[in-house]
Specification:
The chain is α+β, with helices and mostly antiparallel strands. The chain folds into 2 domains: 34 residues; 53 residues, no CATH class. Strands 1, 2, 3, 4 and 5 form a 5-stranded antiparallel sheet that branches. A hairpin with a 2-residue loop joins strand 3 and strand 4. It starts with a helix and ends in a 6-residue tail after the last strand.
Amino acid sequence: MAKLKEILIPIAVVAVGVLGAFATQMSGSSSAAQVLEPAWIDNIMPCETDPYMCSPFEGEACTVIVDGVEHKLRGKYSSSDSDCPKPLFKPGS
């Protein structure tokens, strides 16, 4: 019985560690891809047009082309903000 415990306990510890690492990796990648925030064109009157959707997770800057001109999109830190200073990023970048 003692030899069986000596063999099974290390195997169980490794199995729990592998499953925990796999679960952490899966939850981290799926949650990052699903979180989007409203974003507005960073222009003279920010936050005054219909919002686009961008990611808060660092990556390539979230932009949109309007009338042939590329505009950087920004977000609000709080829903009560009147301007949009928060940098946002392309989803999945």
